[in-house]
Amino acid sequence: MAHPAPTAESTHSAPSTHTAQSTWPTTLRTVLGASTVVLLVLLAFVWPSYLSKVKDLPLVVAGPPAALTQIQAGLGKSGAFDITTVADRAAAESAIKQRDAYGAVVASPSGVEFLTASAASTVVSQALNQAAAGITAQAAAAGQQPPKVTVTDIAPLSPDDPRGAGFAVAGLPLAMGGMLGGVLISLLVAGHRRRLAAVTGYAVLAGLLLAAVLGPWLGILVGSFVMEWAIISAALFATGAFIVGMNGLIGRAGIALGAIVTLFIGNPLSSLTIPKEMLPWHWGEIGQFFVPGAAGTLLRLESYFPDASTLRPWLVLAAWALVGVVTLWFGRHADEEVLHIDGATEPETAPALAS
């Protein structure tokens, strides 16, 4: 029995069993690329801490010349401290509160007092506590009457965060938050006016939520809530605007560039967990010119060192924000969609998809 010839309709309606598959070279490149990215992520977060060492930490001393000579000989030989002499205890305390020194040693006829600032660095505070214990141990080993040694924490951490672990971890939500906002706005919002409005609104609202969690809720930040809100919002705006601006300037590659600068360069060099002097070469100082480092410094100063100058970190945040706004507004990709979602743009003004 003859079978009828297939019609055009039946031919087109038959399901296709063909499935596109990547080439082997593409598969290999993907594996190598992903492995390289993982390696770079590991190096970015581990390298600064792994190569850090206690060195060149600013320390001030005060007291009689004979006592100062002995103190400098004991603490300066290791290279851990960069020692400066000040007039008296008041000057030493002022240097700590203005962030010119991590600690101080004050000698007097009544004994030796170590001034620490755990809010500046728990690492340095612990080192000075060990040095204080060492004076008593050395005197006892030599059969001498040990001097009276006291330790005073001039700038203690919050009672809710006595070891500073919460403050150290707080830097990651700042970096991740700014990056997340910038990426999502770049992908989902089209039009330079709407993108700028989205970055601003996100920075204000997310900054409020993060400040509420880190401040009143967890007690990690103990300064003015309004100032902490302003600092966090400024950091989120600077990062978000930079990422959106880079997308507007060079297209989709700008999103990746902004994320790399924020998370893999700025965050590891922020010096939130260790003093900037302990990082290799000048990386600690360089890190203060990125958003995570500047924002972390501002939050530390606002919470624990109100006498210190905040001009430089504010200027750093302002500079990153300005770069972001300019590139966001004038970039040739500023009004292009990156990811199209039906109904997300107005039909009469919807721009073409980015190439």
UniProtKB/TrEMBL annotation:
Give the residue spans that cross the bilayer. Answer: 31-50, 165-189, 196-220, 226-246, 253-274, 311-331
Carries keyword Membrane? yes
Which keywords does this Swiss-Prot/TrEMBL entry list?
A: Membrane, Transmembrane, Transmembrane helix
Q: Where is this region: Disordered?
A: 1-22
User: Compositional bias (Polar residues) spans?
Assistant: 8-22
Query: Would you say which domain of life the source belongs to?
Result: Bacteria
Q: Under what name is this protein listed?
A: Integral membrane protein
